[in-house]
Amino acid sequence: MPSALPPATRAIIAVNVVAFLLQQYFGNAMVALFALWPLSSTLFQPWQLITYAFLHASLAHIFFNMFALFMFGRALEYFWGSRRFTVFYLACVIAAAATQLLTASLSGSMEATLGASGGVFGLLLAFAMYFPRQRITLLFPPIPMPAWLFVTLYGVLELVLGVTNTQAGVAHFAHLGGMLGGALVILYWRARRVPRS
Predict the structure, then answer these.
(1) Which residues fall within 8 angstroms of residue 19, CB to CB, at 6 or more apart?
(2) Which terminus of the chain has fewer CB atoms gathered within 10 Å of its CB, N or C?
(3) Is 125 within a domain?
(4) Global pTM?
(5) What is the CATH number of the domain that holds 35?
(6) Which domain range does residue 81 map to?
């Protein structure tokens, strides 16, 4: 796997870091304007379907998201190219946002959503689909497993946590929405592929 960071992955990480630094300065004003608010909120704006993914709640939040983007994004960008990678990532971000808006409407939640996790979960799914046997080692505990198993278990865990409403403050269904959006994009690309003669 190449060690250099390709341009789109590097740019997405850079924008996230700059946005996080701006959050530290402007505080709640950034969240009010750019986080994803429920459709019933007076704070909702259409651009939030994308901008929410560049804001983060804490240093740990942005660190783990950017670490995952670094680990999985670069492999996919080298595999796809920068343009296709960027389209895929943003599609996952929007799919995660749409899922979160639906979930918030059904639950009556008025909380804002922020973070790159929806896009990152889409990348996780794509990595498992294109590199299923690639070994991934967890940080806690350090257990190596193939990518397909890691992502499957992670997806099931997110579903269980979402359905049981465990771990309040985490948008589990947005994560699943990012994975679903990623799967639909990949299926669409595969359906459009012209068979070789």
Answers:
(1) 30, 34, 54, 55, 56
(2) C
(3) yes
(4) 0.88
(5) 1.20.1540.10
(6) 7-192
